[in-house]
UniProtKB/TrEMBL annotation:
InterPro entries reported for this sequence: Pectin_lyase_fold/virulence
Keywords assigned: Signal
Source organism of the structure: Sphaeroforma arctica JP610
Residues in the signal sequence: 1-17
Name of the protein in its database record: Uncharacterized protein
Length: 498
């Protein structure tokens, strides 16, 4: 052992606790079992440490003659796990390392402080999240006095390494006057965790007209949330309606059905989904506002239309503001109905324009469902496999969905006997199957080469068949509105008829 250091670190005021003793055989367990305020006295001798001792409580550690042996001084002996641990006191301990020469070490490194930062506030500005916190407590004036490595005294042999010195703050007082102290060699490693709630205005571009029908009380209502694609990132949306009633009235049913008013008849309502109502209000003074949210979902990209919340059961609250039974006026026993019209400003309307700037479209015909071996010639009765690729890597737009909505077949043969093949497939077709893979951004379509598809006639041995596909893309280009766009793709194959 060619050099060692004696550490005297007064890190905190004394806190009365138990007096504990530790030996080289049980010191790890003693540290683990100690509680805030305990004093641990280490017996003299060498203590081998393969990993830092974590101080996560406020302790006083004494160890005249106790030497912690480490492989090099880049290996921490003590790691302060929290603020309580950082307030511990280390008195008389030594750190030693074999094979080094006295006074050659550039900077002592025997301690490390890991800590969590308490977030005091957060703001969002200029596309950045700014966190307010105070980490000054972890960088205050901790110092070591008379730090030695064998016969090397830092205050004498390395004065340039000393962190003391005189400094003045204005003309009021001296803020530092320790010329002979070495700042405690501690590496500070911090991390911060915060729960960040960002609320995005999803109602600004939504206009709603609400008509609440109830004889016994005035009902106020407003849409306070339209979260497009909340459930699936595409067209399954969440809507929240806020209903205001004057106390002592409150809605008492917890769920019901929301429907869409058909244009053909204002009285005809088709059920869309169920709704859920907040818990009933209670203990309010007469005239106070009872506010309850009604949440429901709609599966549709275009939310424009008239809706109806039926069978909202209204009754009186159980108790008033003084916890007495509420005085209940005569009320209409019939349920209330809230009808409302949503206008989402056509954020789902189809726009027809050239998509070359947004999408790199390509199509290929393959010989198997593996879609890995291109082929253009097929026998009658065999299967052909087409795949459309919608590449958005160049434009960076987010593609939510893509689907073929129209298929047109042309050929150099005679198709007069086989008209009406496929066509509009937007609502499904038993003779047409397509699968969209969002990861690969591909639409895969198996086709059987049947007589109707190939326009097979007895006078020809083969036909060249051209398939024209109209693709509907549902995408987000970062403009705060979802868009849908059309484009066409064409593939050519040849069918051998006999």
């Amino acid at each position: 052992m060619q050099f060692q250091s004696t550490v005297l670190a007064a890190l905190a005021a004394y806190v009365t606790g138990a007096e504990l003793s530790a030996t080289r055989g049980d010191f790890q367990q003693v540290f683990a079992n100690a509680v805030n305020g305990d004093t641990i006295t280490l017996e003299a001798g060498e203590y081998a440490t393969s990993e830092p001792i974590v101080l996560d409580k406020k302790l006083i550690i004494k160890g005249d003659g106790a030497l912690f042996v480490v492989s090099d001084l880049a290996a921490p002996v003590f790691a302060f796990g929290n603020m309580e641990g950082y307030s511990s006191t280390l008195n008389g301990l030594s750190v030693g390392t074999p094979g080094a020469e006295a006074c050659d070490l550039a900077e002592p490194y025997a301690l490390r402080a890991n800590f969590s930062i308490e977030i005091t506030g957060a703001t969002v500005a200029n596309n950045k999240v700014n966190l307010q916190t105070d980490v000054g407590v972890w960088h205050n004036e901790r110092k070591l006095n008379d730090f030695y490595f064998a016969d090397c005294h830092y205050a004498v042999d390395h004065p340039a390494k000393m962190s003391g010195g005189r400094g003045a703050m204005g003309r009021v007082h001296t803020c530092s006057s320790d010329e002979d102290d070495l700042r405690l060699a501690v590496t500070h490693e911090g991390n911060a965790v915060t729960n960040l709630l960002i609320q995005i205005d999803t109602v600004r571009n939504v206009a709603a007209t609400i008509n609440a029908k109830y004889k016994s009380a005035d009902i106020g209502a407003a849409i306070n949330l339209v979260d497009v694609g909340f459930f699936d990132g595409w067209n399954h949306s969440k809507i929240r309606l806020e209903i205001h009633l004057p106390a002592p009235f409150t809605i008492i049913n917890t769920e019901g059905v929301v429907g869409r008013v058909e244009e053909s008849s204002e009285s005809e309502v088709s059920a869309l989904s169920s709704y859920i109502v907040d818990a009933s209000c209670n203990e309010q003074a007469i005239g106070d506002g009872c506010i309850q949210n009604v949440v429901f979902d709609i599966i549709a990209c275009d939310l424009i239309g008239e809706y109806s919340l039926d069978k909202l059961m209204i009754a009186c609250q159980e108790t008033d503001e003084n916890d007495n039974p509420a005085k209940c006026p005569n009320i209409d026993s019939a349920p209330a109905t809230v009808q409302f019209f949503i206008d989402t400003n056509s954020f789902c309307e189809v726009e027809e324009f050239e998509l070359d700037a947004l999408f790199d479209l390509s199509i290929e015909v393959y010989d198997s469902e593996a879609y890995d071996s291109p082929e253009t010639v097929f026998d009658l009765g065999s299967m052909s496999y087409r795949q459309i690729t919608i590449d958005t890597s160049a434009s960076g737009v987010s593609l939510y969905n893509a689907e073929v909505i129209y298929v047109k077949r042309t050929t150099d043969g005679d198709c007069s006997s086989f008209e009406g093949y496929l066509g509009d497939v937007s609502d499904g077709n038993p003779d047409f199957t397509q699968t969209y893979d969002p990861a690969a951004q591909t639409i895969s379509m198996p086709h059987q080469v049947r007589a109707q598809m190939a326009c097979a006639t007895s006078d020809r041995t083969g036909n060249a068949i051209t398939m024209n596909y109209t693709v509907l893309d549902d995408y987000d280009d970062g403009s705060a509105r979802r868009s849908r766009s059309l484009d066409g793709m064409t593939s050519v194959m040849r069918a051998r008829l006999r």
